[in-house]
């Protein structure tokens, strides 16, 4: 199996647990073997050092110089339309669907079970 | 040979042994910029005393010193009570010596995370599947 994702400046990472879990941030600079400086200016995540074990790498790499200011990091994010691309990823969609399913009420379960009743479920999982 | 000063001695400040230099909070200098800290320290090993200089990359001095204490404990088995930090100084990247510090100074840094060991070892605690380490 070929390694495709590297820790590099501009790599978009998904935070799997810890502070800001479930969000996408950019790697600004690698500090040492344990962690990197990450920033998410478009999602109000302040710059901080995050250990590598809390992050999962995605396929997106943005273009900005190492240790760039939040303004330029945010511009690179918007220019590459990364929010939309990240939301369109298969595993991100599955995570969101799982979250919505967990929030389903009993009434939502009924609505999904009986679509002929014509009631639109509010927190439903998309049945594909 | 015992270490020259112990933490208990530092905490006990009598009026005659020191003076107030500044009565306010000392704020972190630039907590969003990555800096290289050179830390000069004197530590007690099991047989003798050594003076060394270590270099770490971090956002703040506090973080750098915390890393230093951790590394000294791991590499030299020197606990905090056997370490005296003599000087902490922010240095420029080009003045750093050890190759371990210099390898992270590249502006085009790029490396893999191979064989990612499972973090949630107890979720689930019992399983029939081997964990996936490639992601």
TrEMBL record, chain A:
InterPro entries: Rib_uL2_dom2, Ribosomal_eL14, Ribosomal_eL14_dom, Translation_prot_SH3-like_sf. Keywords: Ribonucleoprotein, Ribosomal protein. Residues 47-114 form the Large ribosomal subunit protein eL14 domain. GO terms for cellular component: cytosolic large ribosomal subunit; organelle membrane. GO terms for biological process: ribosomal large subunit biogenesis; translation. CDD domains: eL14 (cd23702). The keyword Ribosomal protein applies. This is Large ribosomal subunit protein eL14.
From TrEMBL, chain B:
It comes from the Eukaryota. One of its GO terms (molecular function) is structural constituent of ribosome. InterPro entries: Ribosomal_eL20_dom, Ribosomal_eL20_eukaryotes. Keywords: Ribonucleoprotein, Ribosomal protein. One of its GO terms (biological process) is translation. GO terms for cellular component: ribonucleoprotein complex; ribosome. Pfam families: Ribosomal_L18A (PF01775). Component of the large ribosomal subunit. Binds IPO9 with high affinity. Belongs to the eukaryotic ribosomal protein eL20 family. This is Large ribosomal subunit protein eL20. The lineage of its organism: Eukaryota, Metazoa, Chordata, Craniata, Vertebrata.
